[in-house]
Amino acid sequence: MNERLGELKHIGIAVEDLDEAKKTYCDVLGFELEEEMELPERGLKIAFLSAGNTKIELLEGISPDSTISKFVEKRGAGIHHLCFGVDDIKGTIEELTAEGIEMIDRQPRRGAEGSMVAFLHPGSTMKVLIELVEE
User: Fold this and answer.
1) Which is deepest, 16, 87, 111, 114, by most CB within 10 Å?
2) Is the CB of residue 102 less than 8 Å from the CB of residue 93?
3) 115-123 contact pairs (CB < 8 A, 24+)
4) How far is Cα 32 from Cα 55, in angstroms, rounded to an integer?
């Protein structure tokens, strides 16, 4: 196990249409829907699917200015981010910053499931957006 980052908690996938994505991921591929929510303040609809010891997070932008809408417009649907658990998010942010990692969130904020989260800038991680979630 990684000493700094814990287990992979979920894989975030940006989609154009959440209902269509659920048909593919649940009805065709067989993943089980665990939870669905709408976060209008963030312009998002989200579905969490069970995928063994991790989750798949399907994300649909419901407002044109949401980060997911902008992502899909620029890059198309696809993998948006990887999320890893950490014990001490503030301490991890400090350690990563000291190691030269650029953070999108220098201070943690509430995530979709209520836990504290922070994102690493993809410019520091080979163009992969990484989310930290405090467990």
Assistant:
1) 111
2) no
3) 116/89, 117/83, 117/89, 118/89, 118/93, 119/81, 120/96
4) 10
Beta strand pairing call for 32-39 and 109-110: unpaired
Backbone angles phi, psi at 19, to 5 degrees: -65, -45
Provide the pLDDT for residue 113. 85
Closest CA to 52 of 24, 73, 30: 30
Q: Is 2 helix (H, G, I), strand (E, B) or coil?
A: coil
Both tokens of 42, joined, read 């963030």
pLDDT, residue 42, reads 92
Residue 93 predicted with pLDDT over 70? yes
Contact yes or no for 69/59 (Cβ under 8 A): no
- Residue 67 pLDDT > 80, yes or no? yes
| pLDDT at 1 (0 to 100) | 55
**The pair of three-digit structure tokens given for residue 38, joined into one six-digit string:** 């709408």
Q: Which residues contact 83 (CB under 8 A, 6 or more apart)?
A: 8, 9, 10, 11, 12, 57, 117, 130, 131, 132, 133
